[in-house]
Amino acid sequence: AQSVTQPDIHITVSEGASLELRCNYSYGATPYLFWYVQSPGQGLQLLLKYFSGDTLVQGIKGFEAEFKRSQSSFNLRKPSVHWSDAAEYFCAVGAVLLAAGNKLTFGGGTRVLVKP
Amino acid sequence: SAVISQKPSRDICQRGTSLTIQCQVDSQVTMMFWYRQQPGQSLTLIATANQGSEATYESGFVIDKFPISRPNLTFSTLTVSNMSPEDSSIYLCSVEERERDTQYFGPGTRLTVL
Are strands A32-38 and A87-97 parallel, antiparallel or unpaired? Predict the structure, then answer.
């Protein structure tokens, strides 16, 4: 069975500083990997995804993530954080099952607080 | 990406009652999903809903408690039946765009059961 671990429950970062959120997955084949962001009171917005090819993927809002197969990781990064980046971030792994679509398993989430 | 709306956005309900949540998409999609997000928790898949067939429920979720309808390719409903305070959660629907192998989420329905 697939699983996702986000080791950091909370991260506090100063505005303008860099941010890295960790994600480790367990999956028996090449995974489909996603990062979503949930702002307070909102639904989930897709930041970026990895299916294959270049292991460094660019997303919206200046985010990027790097797939490292040897470490089973898909860490999310942003060079300079803005106050509007304060939100909860979810990493997810997808299993492509023809009968049931792309079932997603989510990590526990990391809440990011941005200090002025 | 698809634009997804949910109704209601939030509700406060009494124990023992039922609430039906609607999910509307602005384009035809094959796969729709319903998730639950309990307070302070991550998302858990409740069921997968294909148009024209019975929903497929995940372990721990049953049709009697969470009946789902999927009458066409743009609409689905989730009913939370015989509610208890433990059902207080955010319920989110999502759709899969097959050509992108990606799920997009609605804004969620915040349910409080007293």
Answer: antiparallel
Q: pLDDT tens across B18-28, in order? A: 999 999 999 99
- In the predicted model, what is the mean pLDDT of chain B? 93
SS3 category, B39: coil
Q: Which of B1, B45, B110 lies closest to A103 in CB terms? A: B45
Q: Are strands B109-113 and B10-13 parallel, antiparallel or unpaired?
A: parallel
Per-residue pLDDT tens digits for B75-110:
999 999 999 999 999 999 999 887 777 889 999 999
Residues of chain B numbered 2-21 and touching chain A (CB < 8 Å): 4
- Half-sphere exposure in the Cβ direction for B28 (13 Å, CA): 4
Q: A10 CB near a chain B CB, below 8 Å?
A: no
Distance, in Å, from the CA atom of B5 to the CA atom of A23, rounded to the nearest integer, reads 29
